[in-house]
Write a structure and sequence with these properties.
- The protein is α+β, with helices and mostly antiparallel strands.
- The strands form two sheets. It has a four-stranded antiparallel beta sheet, covered by helices on one side. A two-stranded antiparallel sheet has the order 1-2.
- A hairpin with a 2-residue loop joins β1 and β2.
- The longest helix is centred in the first third of the chain and has 19 residues.
- The chain is globular, with a radius of gyration of 22 Å.
- The protein starts with 11 loop residues before the first helix and ends with a strand.
Length: 180
């Protein structure tokens, strides 16, 4: 995948004959540094990234999939020859996932409730009482009708390879194991 510095889509000011990317970044940094100095007295620790004293200064770059999968188990996938600015497509291969419905009538509560149901499953709310490592990604499937209105959704956690052959059965009736 191309990085943002290589993508024409993110270089609109170059097309328009404006400043160079490096100049634009310096200008942005200078403007934000002044704002940060003015806002220091209102800074809250939870909004800092990486413990930096300046709010937002060390916001981490996204990790590559290889780096993410070093820290957390990922489902098996095949690389697909499709990429663009800041993304790359992959085909996730069939595997067992733990799945629950998401209440779309209240998206915030529905999303949180679905996540915590699945989290309880991996925390031991299963017939084996097994503690299962968190994996990535967390997938949400959205279902729409012919008018493209949202009618339902499901959230799923990939079940790690150690449990693929014999995945623990969920104890919560709202959670099930499915081959995706």
């Amino acid at each position: 995948a191309k990085g943002y510095d290589e993508c024409e889509e993110f270089m609109w000011w170059k097309k328009a004959g404006k400043e160079d990317w490096a100049d634009k970044k310096k200008e942005w940094a200078a403007n934000n540094e002044m704002e940060d100095e003015e806002d220091d007295e209102y800074e809250v620790d939870q909004y800092k990234f990486g413990g930096n004293k300046k709010k937002g200064k060390s916001c981490p770059k996204p990790k590559s999939l290889a780096e993410v999968c070093e820290d957390n188990e990922c489902p098996p996938f095949e690389e697909v020859d499709v990429s663009g600015c800041g993304f790359e497509a992959r085909k996730i291969l069939a595997a067992n996932w733990t799945v629950t419905k998401l209440d779309v009538s209240d998206m915030k509560k529905g999303d949180q409730s679905a996540f915590w149901r699945l989290f309880k499953y991996i925390s031991g709310a299963n017939d084996q009482g097994a503690k299962i490592a968190m994996t990535v990604p967390v997938i949400t499937k959205w279902y729409m009708d012919e008018e493209y209105e949202l009618v339902g959704a499901e959230m799923a956690f990939y079940i790690p390879s150690a449990f693929q052959a014999n995945p623990p059965a969920p104890t919560d009736p709202l959670v099930h194991v499915a081959m995706w």
